[in-house]
Every structure is written in C-alpha cells, then in structure tokens.
C-alpha cells in the first residue's frame, strides 16, 4: 500500500507526521535526499526539515543522488525505514534521479509500501509530470533534462507554497493556467496531502489559540 506524506514545508507540519506514521518514530531510519537544493542559493529549508526530523527522534542518513552510484542509492533506500526528498529545483532533482535510475528505485520502494515524505520539489515529483511548475522553478539549470515526466505516484498534480511568499504570484498563475486542464492540488506551507492506499486527504496544521 502506498504511503505518501506530501508537504510544501515538512518542518511546518511535522506534528501531523507523527499521527500519519502510526508508529513510534524514535530510532526509525530516514534516507534524507537534499539533491534538489544543490543548485539553489537559498537552502535554509533543508536544515529546518532536518532539525524537525531529528526532533522527532529519527536517525538521518544523508543520500546525495548526484554523487552516489546507482548501487549505493539502491542500498540506502532499502536499508532505511522512510525516504525523504527535500525542496529546491524540481527539474534538477528529476534530472539527477533519472540519470542514476533512482526514479525507478524510488517507485519500486514506494509501491512496496515504504513511507515517502516530500517537501516542495520532493512532493511535486510524485505528480505525473513536472512541466506545470516551470513558472516557479528555472528549467535553464537542467539542459540535459528533455523528459518532464514525474514519478507518477499519484494521478493529481501537487502544487506547493500556494499563495505563500515568495511564490504568491507564481502559484496563482499556475492555478489560473492549469486548473482547467489538470487535477491540480494547491496547498499552503501549513498543509499536507496524505496518501494511504486509495485514500487521499488534505490536512492543515492546527492554528494556535489566541490569548484573550
């Protein structure tokens, strides 16, 4: 059964992950893939997510797709309990996954029931294709990528950071352009889309009660 936890920002919704996992998290092993962020100038969100996982008690094994061999990737994905892919440039991430055959390895692991967690780019790649986010991510950084197909773990198209800074205009443009054509699912940084078999839910981080 497929188990997906698709976020815009994992650190913002980490509390919801505890319930979704349905098991004690302390001591669980996580393959942590930061590859998408390598071509970005701003990368603080990778550290934020890493700290959020550590706070939950997970043991992190960093797996850099662009420098690892296909065999190393396969072994790391197999030996860890969960798989996480960070945010960054979606097109660069997909290029590196395809180059190493890691796209197929991921699909195999996830179809066999391994829990997958994505942030931003790491969630977008679960879609059938990634072409629809070209207004958010630069494609010029990936001259080698000619095939924009995603992992197709879901039949909908995941759009992160909806109406959040600095993507407010870009995400609204994507919604305007694509929502009449495809099953677009936009979520904010405080939301998550969970997939458990055929059950798909959109959850939101509870708002803090304001003091009177």
From TrEMBL:
Pfam families: Peptidase_S51
BP term (GO), one: proteolysis
One GO MF term: serine-type peptidase activity
Key word rRNA-binding present: no
Keyword Zinc part of the UniProt annotation: no
Protein keywords: Hydrolase, Protease, Serine protease
Family classification: Belongs to the peptidase S51 family.
Name of the protein described by the UniProt record: Dipeptidase E
Organism: Capnocytophaga granulosa
